[in-house]
Write a structure and sequence with these properties.
- The structure holds two protein chains of two kinds.
- By secondary structure, chain A is an all-alpha fold.
- Chain A has six helices and two strands; from the N terminus they run H-H-H-E-E-H-H-H.
- In chain A, a hairpin with a 5-residue loop joins strand 1 and strand 2.
- In chain B, about 65% of the residues lie in helices and about 0% in strands.
- The chains are: A mainly alpha, B mainly alpha.
- Chains A and B meet through helix 5 and helix 6 of A and helix 2 of B.
Chain lengths: ~350, ~70
């Protein structure tokens, strides 16, 4: 890949950052999902707990009604007695509980629950009042304007058409049937549904947390691999060539002009290597020129010496020395020109 | 042949002739420089052509026994 050093470092850092950001985003998403599932599971458990409380209260209500019915039949009840007060209180308690249904209880479930409860409640009142009449008691149950109960000498509870004509025994069985239908039908179904939902949410929460942990570990491993890969890549493409360039420069400085590089790139490192090579070639060329110049000086000096010797011998012999001296002058001028060229180069 | 190529050719011939004699090579290159009046090592591939230098280089090479 032919990239500049700056781009290469940027790319390596970018990949490392990208891996970490992707892992962080995935981990954040899974953590958020786990928290959401945790909330969902908690809500389902709260719903199941609430339904269980409703079941207990309804059971207590029916149990108190049964005790009261048998008590009334036996003629032991009086107006405003504790038994009536307990039943009225439990009825109010169940009504309050039903009004405080969890917000996440499905509307259809809440409606079904309320309808069944109302059917059961009315059946219980009709049965209790019927038992009261049978037992010659003057205490009956009345509905107030707000729908709550109170003990009274009169009954204003209208009998549903399905219960009209039933004797106390049939009413008792009907109450038992509706109680079972309420507890084992509607309530059990909703409790089971809530617990199943809580279980599913807990499983999803665990799954999300496991995935978050796995992704975090994978991200650490991936970051490590990418970082090591980037370090190796940067070393091979930047540090190693720079080290080679340094060795070549040192070799040139110590006189080894045959030192060379294996590869060139078009990046900053390649440009640096190219510059070092040019410097090496320039140094080699200048040394070559200096050698050439040194050779010329030597040759010229030898020739000048030879000419001078000849002139001297001829001078000793009283001969003509002009030609030999001209050669000395010519060679000296040439030497001067060459020296000037070298200095100008 | 261009001046630069001639310089390279002559230098190569001299280096071949004095492979094991660095001092002889130095003297031969000096002799060539004194005969031509310029330093062959300073001639670059992009230098302008100079017929006078080419002529002097050819004469010096022939005088030194180098066939061109």
């Amino acid at each position: 890949m032919n990239l500049s050093v700056r781009r290469r470092i940027g790319l390596a850092m970018g990949i490392v950052v990208l891996v970490n950001v992707a892992a962080g985003a995935a981990s954040w998403y899974l953590d958020t999902r786990a928290l959401h599932e945790q909330d969902r599971a908690d809500a389902a458990v709260r719903r199941a707990t609430w339904l269980s409380t409703v079941s207990n209260d309804v059971t207590a209500f029916v149990s108190e009604a049964t005790d009261l019915a048998f008590g009334v039949t036996g003629g032991r009840s009086e107006e405003g007695s504790a038994e009536y007060g307990d039943l009225v209180g439990t009825d109010a308690s169940v009504r309050r509980l039903m009004a405080q249904a969890p917000v996440d209880l499905p509307a259809a479930d809440a409606a079904a629950l309320a309808a069944k409860w109302e059917d059961l409640r009315v059946a219980v009142f009709v049965w209790i009042n019927a038992e009261a009449e049978t037992g010659h008691s003057n205490t009956r149950l009345m509905l107030t304007d707000t729908g709550t109960l109170r003990a009274s000498v009169q009954s204003n509870i209208s009998t549903p058409s399905a219960l009209i004509g039933m004797d106390t025994g049939s009413l008792r069985r009907e109450v038992r049937r509706q109680t079972e239908a309420f507890r084992l039908g509607v309530l059990r179904t909703q409790v089971d549904g809530a617990l199943a939902e809580a279980d599913t949410a807990r499983r999803r929460e665990d799954e999300s947390r496991r995935w978050a942990s796995t992704i975090t570990l994978l991200a650490i491993a991936a970051s490590l691999v990418v970082a090591v890969g980037a370090a190796v890549w940067l070393y091979r493409t930047i540090a190693a060539p720079l080290s080679k360039a340094k060795k070549v420069a040192e070799a040139v400085s110590s006189g080894d002009y045959a030192a060379s590089f294996d590869r060139h790139g078009t990046d900053e490192v390649g440009a640096l290597i190219h510059a070092v090579e040019e410097m090496r070639d320039s140094v080699v060329r200048r040394i070559e020129v200096m050698r050439e110049m040194a050779g010329a000086v030597i040759v010229t000096a030898e020739a000048a010496a030879e000419a001078a010797r000849t002139a001297r011998e001829r001078a000793y012999g009283q001969g003509d020395t002009g030609q030999a001296l001209d050669a000395v002058v010519s060679r000296a001028e040439t030497l001067s020109d060459l020296a000037t060229q070298m200095l100008d180069a | 042949m261009r001046l630069y190529d001639l310089c390279r050719h002559v230098s190569a011939e001299l280096e071949k002739r004095y492979t094991n004699d660095p001092m002889g090579l130095l003297r031969a290159k000096g002799e060539l420089a004194t005969r031509t009046g310029f330093l062959a090592g300073l001639v670059g591939p992009n230098d302008p052509e100079d017929p006078e230098k080419v002529r002097r280089l050819r004469e010096a090479a022939e005088a030194m026994g180098i066939a061109l």
